[in-house]
What we know:
The structure is a homodimer.
Chain A: H1 5-15, E1 24-25, H2 28-34, E2 37-42, H3 52-61, H4 65-68, E3 72-75, H5 79-91, E4 95-100, H6 105-113, E5 117-121, H7 125-139, E6 142-143, H8 150-166, E7 172-176, H9 181-193, E8 198-204, H10 209-216, H11 240-247, E9 250-254, H12 256-270, H13 276-287, E10 296-301, H14 311-315
Parallel strand pairs in A: 2-10, 3-4, 3-6, 4-5, 7-8, 7-10, 8-9
Antiparallel strand pairs in A: 1-2
Helix pairs in contact in A: 1-3, 1-8, 3-5, 3-8, 5-6, 8-9, 9-11, 12-13
Amino acid sequence: MQITKEQIEQAHERVKPFIHQTPVLTSTFINSIAGAELFFKCENFQKIGAFKIRGGMNAVLTLPKDQLANGIATHSSGNHAQAIAYAAREVGTKAFIVMPNTSPKVKVDAVKGYGADIIFCEPNQQARENALQEIVDRTGAAFIHPYNDERVITGQATCAKELLEKIPALDAIFAPVGGGGLLSGTALSAHYFSTATKVYAGEPEGAADAVLSFKSGQIETAPYINTIADGLLTKLGDKTFPIIQQYVTDIFTVSEDEIISSLQLVYERMKIIVEPSCVVPLAALLKNQEQFAGKRVGIILSGGNVDLKKFAEWFG
Amino acid sequence: MQITKEQIEQAHERVKPFIHQTPVLTSTFINSIAGAELFFKCENFQKIGAFKIRGGMNAVLTLPKDQLANGIATHSSGNHAQAIAYAAREVGTKAFIVMPNTSPKVKVDAVKGYGADIIFCEPNQQARENALQEIVDRTGAAFIHPYNDERVITGQATCAKELLEKIPALDAIFAPVGGGGLLSGTALSAHYFSTATKVYAGEPEGAADAVLSFKSGQIETAPYINTIADGLLTKLGDKTFPIIQQYVTDIFTVSEDEIISSLQLVYERMKIIVEPSCVVPLAALLKNQEQFAGKRVGIILSGGNVDLKKFAEWFG
């Protein structure tokens, strides 16, 4: 059953008290090199440093009270882990987060900082699913998937809704695509709240499952994985893919060099910290700028949680 | 003759069309570790990426038309160079910038990008002064000193004025101190526009001339220079020092480790790019936080022009 306009509106009201209405920034310099008017929706300034709190918070707030009492569980080593940990704390329940035992300390510490229980597992899909199932069986906690979940998609949709309320009549919105939670939500919001606004995605060449899936019409796996955009490694889910197929206009891929150039552009010209995953849509726009000449384009900067030690790798 | 309240008000009206009214940001996390309520005035988002445009623009806009026709000149390898280059372009005259031949390419390119003429000199005081004098003699350009100039001080004062208009009744404002242009301007604005607001400065231990001067009552030279806060290497001038002596409450020094910790805090928690010089006041506040427990404190984040290649050095 398709997510409705009313469900997105209700989700927005539901999560508003718990999230920031993030600013929309512009850069004269970046406009001049893009040849278009760009509006950056800065989810790097969001609670937990990423848009993921929208979906996580919406999912947690829609759980029945008795289910909530058992806690919530997920598997993630990234921003969704922090989102669930934060959301659980906000509503006064427990969070159980399954993380690979190879997770960087900085990410583990962030999740611990919100008071969540961490369950370490071997860094593979089977170990992760087993660990999660064991926790759910033992505690009765409610599982909230990082993206393949209508409550999560509906929550992520509030980001583009907010952008369109502030900057109406956009010709296009660009979002990154990993599992497709943000992209499918963005596409739904554009469809419902600004019908003429087309939605595009940027994807790393080194994690190009979505563009393949988009072309073949079925969920594909990336031919190879090699990208610094570590938030975009997952493949589409059976709930996100159909929405993307129906409402997204195109998906563009970009190289690692293009990602690093865009990262440098945002750091140097906008003076804000964003994740590599986050500039993939900007890189995609710049690569295809003749299509968007003179247009008004929204770009969702999805998050800003970076390990400062990586800077040497990117800019050294 | 002392800079008056009316002069600062006029300067503000004069520069307003050319500058950004920069945002004031807060961070719940940084407040919690500081034990105070902090308000960050984000001049890293200012035109040319630093507060220096305020003073440069004010000086240029107060020049008589006939003098302006000959162009403007200065010596600087930093943000003042960009400020003068930008201001000259805005008013349609030439800028002549004397820079040491050791200046990083990124800074040279930024100044060139605004269309200024660059005159390279050997990296010492005498060569710099000779080169500047030669240019002024040859072109009749008006010299605008980076800080030891009333027009510049008055322009820099508009930053604290703007902060106090947005966030009234601050108990204190912290600014960095190099040559003292920003600090003396900040102190004047606090004095005129919010009498109860005390002004403090942060200075690197490795460029500790201002704190020595403040204590001895005469302009001193730093015992040694060793700091990543490369915007704060200059010593006080005979126009900035008396204002600082009269209106600044205290100057605190901080170590290099303290500067890097504060830099990391701002990058990770506020998700914004700032210069090392810029976090010296935050480091100073955190080091002396018992004095400011529960207070409302403004902190001027002076700029965001960094060489991304330095990240490896700071965070590696």
